[in-house]
Fold this sequence. Notes:
alpha/beta, 13% strand, 10 helices, 5-stranded parallel sheet
Amino acid sequence: MPVVNLNKISTRAPRGWNKEKTRAKTAVLLEELGELQNLLFAEAKHAVLIVIQGMDASGKDGLIRNVFGKLNPQGVQVESFKVPTPEESSHDFLWRIHQHTPPRGMIQLFNRSHYEDIVVTRVHKWCDDKQALARMKAINDFEDLLVKHNNTRILKFYLHVSPEEQRLRLEERIKMPGKQWKYNEKDFEEAKLWKDYMKAYTDCFNKCNLQPWTIVPSDQNWYKEYLVAAQLHGVLTSLNMRYPGLKK
């Protein structure tokens, strides 16, 4: 697989992409995704796990709301993984993750995920390189298990935002009343560790890629939402699903 280098990947849409035309394409995709999700649920032969990673203010919540919020809520589940609880910390790092993997027929979203345990932990020196490599192997085996033993399709998205755009969005959380509830002064401290995070993420992409990553340019929300919707649409279409007939 090709080596990922975040420094060489743009955070913006390619020149020539039209915002309004792209939004119109996204609207069509979302309409069709509604039917594809119904098929997934009715057929109940496949599961879909969507992993969403990104720096603070990369737009994870907005992506979930604007793309997956259009689908039937009975067929979509969202789990956010924050600092492990004492009970979670007393188990292996994948214990809390496995409890939320999707059953066949469902789409499961991870807003942050098991990858926090090889990114944040390395940046803050809570996990050394030897332990991180062991965890990467465990993650590859874990994802392989889901694919081979539960017909799970795994889509992994890294929302690639520039440090300049991140700072603008973090500052909006101070100034805009509708976003102030998201404000966390620690986000500005984490932003100072940008280079360390990019190094940790790059290593993650290149060693945990049996299920490939999609690096999503995320400075422009309309482009980000289109790319994610298009990839999900492509995966669900490729399953060639059919509605079950009458039960006998």
